[in-house]
Structure formats: structure tokens, C-alpha cells
């Protein structure tokens, strides 16, 4: 029989053993939960990075499509092809083949450069309405097919005549695409004719490679076999894809690393494209974090109820994290056993509840300290290995921590940055409103994301893609500010180059037809608000063709650039002068108080155009015909296109006149 003391000791021992087991179980669960939460955060960052890179790639494709579509020579051939296609008949087919070859020869050299430099894969001309292929520059032998039911980006552009972008599968390739409308630039603004759509696309290869390089992760993109075989031609499928991955019944579109087939086959269940989430798996003894989410194409994003057509998968090695978890589990088990025995000894020597409570507190504090130190070391290692710059300030916005990437990007040493204000990097390219909005966003949402123009130590321009966050303690008090940034200077410069090429006349550097339309609409809107008048001046040079025929196109280019400079200096700085094609210009004047002031300006323009020019010691003299339409706030509410048409008609009236250099619309003589 047990004595009372033994019974009490046994009961206490069982209670302590139970609590000890629960304590060990709780710490193991907490360690596993902490690892899982860390992996979830990493997964969210990876998906956000994917969306950002995808958006940039779509912008680049649309910018390149806009650049090609703005070439008058390209649109002229494409327009002839559209007119010819509408005729029908055997002769039209022969002429269509000739025009297709001309268009291919025109764009093919530049297209090869774009392919090599920007990893583009598709260049495609299509007629509207719908989506009828006219020329695949990447597969010129394939043309004439209707893709209305599969190429929704093209159908939307031909329907709404607005540029769109997105991921979509075609007859030959799946790609990240930018599609823009194409208008014939060879006619007057009021007779602008819509031709069709132009598409530029790239593969996922550059996207997954960029993500792998930036984040040191494996990336793969899969497309379902059902989706691919319902759209692509069979010969394109056989040429593009080598095999089908059985577990997912899909095709591998792109991958940044090998071994993805082993990862897919390691899954016990059949891969489901509708799922998203993260998993920890083992492949060839390697612990991997697997992040996956559904992939939807352009039409899928417009209609979310449609099923996904593929999936994006990220994977990275987490051996160190798993090893750390196992060590934590082992430590907790050993600590639990040791604690149990130790407490038993204390109970045996009658140091019961007080000592037991004290020991538990000591163990808890020791465990927290070890775990905190491990977290700090892990955070430091992650920060130093990041390719993005990291800058941390205290609550007074004084820098207290930078990583090596921040030093490499800015050119400052750690000693020069620590203790300084982030203002040391300011370039004065932003006004006070920019920073007010930045801090308002941080105070309201806790973070700000965008591009900021700074400068390096050597005063070179530094454009950063940055995220600035506020760090608060458990009481909600601000303790730190954290900035994570990367150098995107070269990308921004390239983007600006593409934008300038798309919206500026390449010879005179004047705004082109697209910019004219935008500025004219803005000026008209402002004039309605402020009850002002607008004068639209259509300018056509007289006898310009004989200069080209007699002295050559270089002389013609000299005349156009010289007169562009003269006219730009003559009109007001707030007005717009644009070249809309050949020897035709349009000026939008909105800072005149009366028609008489407009006449005085026209007389100045007549004089600067008639002033002789000298090219290779040859005296060149020519004149111009001016047609003017007027928008008056008290009159009829005319549109931009109507004002341009009126000015065009008045210009032709002036050109046929023997006595008038300029004529106002609705008048038959010079005013």
C-alpha cells in the first residue's frame, strides 16, 4: 500500500508529467506554426513579385507595339492590304501576297533586333473586325485564319480601338502580349481610317528567368493540355512541347530550372490548376517550399468565373529552416525530459511549488531568449543576402541600418549613411506634393510603394522601385521606418525612350498626331471652362515636292526641320505645333484675345516660311497655305475632329486661291 506521501508524490508526478508533455507539444506546434507563417509570408511576396514583373512585361510589349504601329511606312502597306482584301477575287489574292511580302520585308530586320534585345517572340498583323490573321512575322507562312473565338485581346482592340495587354494563347505560341489599334497615318486627321490590330508578344522565359535571378527561386509555368490542344495548331504543339507531365495532364510552358518534373511527380494527388497555396515537400532528399497559384489568361481575368488554364509554381530550398525546426523539436524534447527529472529531484528534496514555478519561469525565459537570438540572426542573414537595398531609420528618421546592396546601389559607405537622414539621397526631382502624398500613404496604410528619383554619391541619377513601411511596437508607437529598394534606372530610361519614339515625330521632334489629339482635347476642355476661344490652324507647304525632286530628300528634311523650328519660335510656348504627315502641320492656338491677333500671328508665320533658306549654297524659297477654324464658347459646340476638318477644308480653299495665303473657315477671301 502507498503511503499518503507517496500518493501525493505520485499524483504530483503525473500532473507534472502531463504538463511537461503539453509544454513540449505546445512548443513543437509553435515552432511548426512559426515556420509555416514564415513560408506563407514568403509565398505572398513571391506572388506579388510575379504580378509586378508580369505587369512590366505587358507594358513593354504594348510600348513596342505602339512604336511599330506609329511608323507611317508600315501603316501605309497595312492599309493597302486592308483595302485590297475588301475587294476579293483572284487578282486581289495575288496583290495581297505581294503586299504581305512587302510588309514582312519592311518590319523583319527591326523585328529580329527586337527579338534578340527584348526577348520578344510574336509580331502579328490582323484585320478587324474580329481577329483575322494577315501576317505572322514569326511564322510568315501561316496567315488568313480567323481567331475570333480564341484571341480575345485582338477582338477587343478591333472592337473598341483601344490598346490592351495580357497573357493569351495563340495558334503558334502562348505569350505575354501587347495589342494596339493601327490607323492609316497617310490621310488627313478627319479621315483617319482604322485598319486593324498589331500585336507584340514575349514568352514566359524572360519573366521566369528574371524572377529566379532576383529572388533565387525556381519558377515554372504550366498550361493545361485541354487549353493548348483547343487553340494551338498540331504542328506548333509538336514543335513547341516535347512531352506531357502525367500528374498534371499539362504542358510545361517555361521553367527557370530543371527538375520540375520530379517536383510534380512527388505530389500524391493529381495536380489541380484551381488550387493555390504552399506545401513542404521532399525531392531527392531535398526539402522544398512549393508555392502555386492558378494562371488565368486575358479572357479569364475579364470573366473570373471561367476556370484557370494553367498554374504558376515557385520552389526554393528550405533545408536550413527544416533543420532548424528539427533542432528546435529535439531541444524541446530534451529540455522537457531534463526539466521533468530536475523537478522530480526538487520535489524529492521537498522544494516543491515555489521552486517548480521559478524553474518554469527560468526555462521559459531561456527558451524565448534563444529563439529571439535565432530570429535576429536569421533576419540579419536574410537582409544581407537580399539583392534589394534595405535602409532602416529610427523614429526620428535617422539611418541606423543599411545592407550591402544599399551601399552598392547608392555608392555611399556604411559610415557615411549611418546617422544621416535619407535626404542625403534626394535629387530635387520631386516637389513637396510628392513627399506629402508619400507620408500620407505611410500614415494611412502603413506603407508606400512606387518609384522615387534619387541620386548616387557621384551625383548620378538613381531611379528606385521602393517600398517604404512604418514599424510600430505592440502599443502602436512608431519605432522605425523601413525602405526596401532596387535600381531601375536603366529600365526607366528605356521606357522613356520608347514613349518618346511613340509620341514624337522622328524628323522634326514635334508632337505627332496622337499627342495633337490629346492636347487639342485638353485645350478644348479648358477653353470651355474659362470661356476662351481656340484657333485651329492647318498648314500645308506649297511646292515642297519640287525641292525633294530637285535637290533630294536630305534637302527636304532640312526644309522641314528648319521651318518647324521657325514656326515653333513664332507661336506661343503654351500652344501646340504638330507634324501630322509629309509637309502638313497643325497648330492649336489658345492664348489669343481676338481674331485680329490671330491674323497678326498668321502674317508672322507666312513671313517666316517665305524667308529664304540656304542648303549647300542653294537658295530655297517656298510658301504655305493656311486654313483656320475657330471654336467660340458662345457658338456651336464643335468637336476636335470637326474643327480639324473645317481647318483642312479652309486650307484647300486657300491653296486654290490666287491671292490668299490663309482663309478662315466659312470665308471666301483673306481677312
UniProtKB/TrEMBL annotation:
Residue ranges constituting the PAC domain according to the UniProt record: 446-500
- Domain of life, per UniProt, equals Bacteria
Show where the PAS domain sits: 382-421
Please list every transmembrane segment annotated in the UniProt record, as residue ranges: 331-351
Task: Please give the chief subcellular localization of this protein.
Answer: membrane
This protein's UniProt keywords: ATP-binding, Kinase, Membrane, Nucleotide-binding, Phosphoprotein, Transferase, Transmembrane, Transmembrane helix, Two-component regulatory system
Instruction: Return the Pfam families for the record.
Output: dCache_3 (PF14827), GGDEF (PF00990), PAS_9 (PF13426)
Q: Which residues form the GGDEF domain?
A: 532-667
| Cellular localisation | Membrane
N-terminal signal peptide: none
**CDD domains the UniProt entry points to:** GGDEF, PAS
Instruction: Specify the protein name.
Output: Diguanylate cyclase
